């Protein structure tokens, strides 16, 4: 049996903060005891002892929204499962939930098999899958039941991107009805893509081709309208709903209203909406392309509603929507036509640090940091308490975090396979120091000690967050 002991740190979970020693045996947490007590002194004969004095001991991050190798706009997201999960480890994230894609005319199974083939043997940390449903038909609906049984318990649909991932209201309602019966959770990309495509065409006809127009045509009202429609369709179906990458004040208001009505409606936002804005999209010399994602970055005024939503629990999760495209050769596909810029931002490595900065800045508490980044994503997507907490029985996915270290985020030092950082030059306080994945050190005092293939596929239970 291998035994690791973490001594003297401040253990932070979604519910508690306690100076405690943590005992790990064979990849699982087996005991915690308040530091200095006889119970903690009795933890002896470890193979490895980590001194965490002055540090935080937190659960490994759970990033419930990534797109490694996603095909989009004629190219592929630049992080593979190997490079993307290595970067995740560097950033203190020990589980990702990535999106397998059903292509139109193909089965869910074909899409899922393809994503397993991309990931298997390549991941540095554990991984699971959601399924993007692009083609709702009788066969797809039957397959949803089978996928839930085998641990793919959530399905993303798109009200945007007509002709690619788009589902109409009837297809959405059918999928929601199915998920109401089988325990699956529908995740919604809520933007009115039909209306947006009209505005895109009109903008381009006026010669408005720069990246900032991406933000102008993808209007906050069209996010709010779609959010409202998704909520009411889910209500009609009697199904829970999780709205991904919420960015607009008006969309948060729709979620808040539905939650006040007692509906099982949940919302996710992402660091880019909390820390970046349309100012970035307006950067000159086509640099704004680095910030093109959908939903789009909003004027800075929207950030207050997102922070408030995170505090009131009208928003429950912060994921990255990590979907990197290099500026050179990929974002550049949209020079002269913003609608051809591949959509997505890198961030899987930055999320835990950016949210710690939110603690430093006073937006959220330390426990709320762990709740929105670790515990709730694990519960929302059926991984709890194996993932997302520090407790006996949980996987020993543990981060030793130095809350006082200063760092400057930069593409020059990050580990994501992308040629820019969306947060270039940003100073943050706090840094991941050591990361254990199922007890195995994958980052040891800022030295990478992981390997491709350590991470394993992790089937999921159904949503554990329903009221
Ligand atoms: O711009 C984004 N968000 N790209 C990834 C695909 C999606 O819609 O999540
Ligand atoms: Zn989306
Ligand atoms: Zn409320
Ligand atoms: Zn996404």
UniProtKB/TrEMBL annotation:
<keyword id="KW-0378">Hydrolase</keyword>
<feature type="domain" description="Amidohydrolase-related">
    <location>
        <begin position="56"/>
        <end position="441"/>
    </location>
</feature>
<dbReference type="InterPro" id="IPR011778">
    <property type="entry name" value="Hydantoinase/dihydroPyrase"/>
</dbReference>
<dbReference type="InterPro" id="IPR050378">
    <property type="entry name" value="Metallo-dep_Hydrolases_sf"/>
</dbReference>
<dbReference type="GO" id="GO:0016812">
    <property type="term" value="F:hydrolase activity, acting on carbon-nitrogen (but not peptide) bonds, in cyclic amides"/>
</dbReference>
<dbReference type="InterPro" id="IPR011059">
    <property type="entry name" value="Metal-dep_hydrolase_composite"/>
</dbReference>
<dbReference type="GO" id="GO:0005829">
    <property type="term" value="C:cytosol"/>
</dbReference>
<protein>
    <submittedName>
        <fullName>Phenylhydantoinase</fullName>
    </submittedName>
</protein>
<dbReference type="GO" id="GO:0046872">
    <property type="term" value="F:metal ion binding"/>
</dbReference>
<keyword id="KW-0479">Metal-binding</keyword>
<feature type="modified residue" description="N6-carboxylysine">
    <location>
        <position position="156"/>
    </location>
</feature>
<dbReference type="Pfam" id="PF01979">
    <property type="entry name" value="Amidohydro_1"/>
</dbReference>
<dbReference type="InterPro" id="IPR032466">
    <property type="entry name" value="Metal_Hydrolase"/>
</dbReference>
<comment type="similarity">
    <text>Belongs to the metallo-dependent hydrolases superfamily. Hydantoinase/dihydropyrimidinase family.</text>
</comment>
<dbReference type="InterPro" id="IPR006680">
    <property type="entry name" value="Amidohydro-rel"/>
</dbReference>
